[in-house]
Amino acid sequence: MGWDVEEYIWSAIRLSDGTKEMYSVDLEAFRLYCLENGINDPAAIDRKILQGYVSHLISDGNSRRTVARKLSAIRGYLKFLTRQRRLLENPSHGLSIGRIETKLPKVLSRYDADHLMTAASKPGTPEYLVLRDDSICELLYGSGLRVSEVANLDLDDLDLEGASVTVMGKGSKQRTVPMNRSCVRAMKRYLESGRDSMIAALGSKLGGSSSALFYNRVGLRIGTRDIRRILDSRSANPVNPHALRHSFATHLLDGGADLRVIQELLGHSRITSTQVYTKVSKDQLIKVHEETHPRGR
Question: Catalytic residue at 103?
């Protein structure tokens, strides 16, 4: 029996493209480990080889979070083989590495977020790049989009009249997210004076989709790494794009937004994801305590 990893990845329609890429790498590493240990057929995978692989990953210096992700890829793959009746039973059933502490990205203060939105570009930067970068930052922080969602936006996904943007999230789930006034203004400036100028400047270099909303410097649809570089160029310290999404949610919560509303905006299928994602800031907890406790008034 073949390993059929690509067939599993192709069938996993609920996974995002980014997760599929990671799972492909994870499963190839697992396949090579199996071959090195005399397992030439996935039908021969048993609990012992799985436990050995987990121990190997941990001793190799991988974090528990990374090990858990790799194990998740393997579980899904073996479940797929079991459903296809290529395995009699799933040897990964019940296998766990224990509880993993949830680590959240740093939340930017409102001051730091505002500074990132209005940071001056390097001297000599073409105006169309400045307008593009302003729009991207506004979407990340103003609408809480994932970096991959921003990169995959097409021109038709924007509704400036309705002040909203339609995105394709994890698991190919589509949602419509509002844009605030600042974001709409930035998008209008980019569409009126930036995007067409960038396409003209790129000329024959333009090799990406003509429908893409944002392009990089070489004429391809902008990528997640391009966006990371944009944020780093605007800040004295490296900024993870996910920190802007987390800041978006936390600042909404601090402002009194309902958790269910934030769940919809973020595109979370479960409220528990939002509860972990939007831990209330320490300052807000102190403020609520002082304002509501009888001895704090």
Answer: no
In sequence order, the 6+-apart residues with CB closer than 8 A to the CB of 111 are: none
- pTM summary value: 0.65
Per-residue pLDDT reduced to its tens digit, 56-68? 888 777 788 888 8
Catalytic hit among 185, 188, 242, 279: 242
Same-domain status, 190 and 65: no
Among candidate residues 20, 48, 83, the one where a domain is terminated: 83
* Cα distances (angstroms) measured from residue 132 to each of 112, 169, 183, 243: 20, 22, 12, 20
Residue 141, token pair as written in the block: 């922080």
Considering the domain boundaries, does residue 279 fall inside one?
A: yes
Same domain, 138 and 240: yes
User: What residue numbers bound the domain in which 79 lies?
Assistant: 5-83
Say whether 170 is catalytic.
Answer: yes
Looking at the DSSP assignment, which residues form a beta bridge with residue 165? 158, 177
Does residue 277 have an active-site annotation? Answer: yes
Catalytic residue among 234, 245, 246, 251: 245
Residues 169 and 226 in one domain: yes
Q: Is 56 a catalytic residue?
A: no
Q: What is the CATH number of the domain that holds 170?
A: 1.10.443.10
Q: Which of 115, 170, 185, 229 is catalytic?
A: 170
pLDDT in tens, 15-38: 888 888 899 999 999 999 999 888
Q: Does 268 qualify as catalytic in the annotation?
A: yes
Catalytic residue (one of 70, 132, 146, 195):
146
Does residue 253 sit in the same domain as residue 117? yes
Mark whether 79 and 118 lie in a shared domain.
Answer: no
Whether the Cβ atoms of residue 205 and residue 199 lie closer than 8 Å to each other: no
